[in-house]
Please model this.
Amino acid sequence: MSFIDKYLVKLSSRQIGEDQFGNKYYVGKSKNYTGRNKRYVIYKGIEDSSKIPPIWHAWLHYMQDDVPEKTESYDWGKGYLPNLTGTKFSYDPAKSDCKKIETYSKWQPK
Model:
């Protein structure tokens, strides 16, 4: 989202909330094709859609109408991990530490 887009969203919309990553969520005055007010997110830092918590994702996509309040974190939940595709930290099977099982044999019909 460009600087101009962010400025226009801030002018024409009302801020609804903010998540633990600092992303800000807005409701616009204009309507979308379903007749509902448009919803926007302005990311803090790098624009990475994987940085949106699930409860805010549900709100953005009209799965939930209630504005999420403070999101709880559970001890069994994993923390945020950015999308590493295209970086030197992305997964490469050739460099993986996983042991390959070489006992595979092709099935031959009898």
Observations:
- The chain has a mean pLDDT of 85.
- Strands lie at 13-18, 24-31, 37-42.
- The radius of gyration is 21 Å.
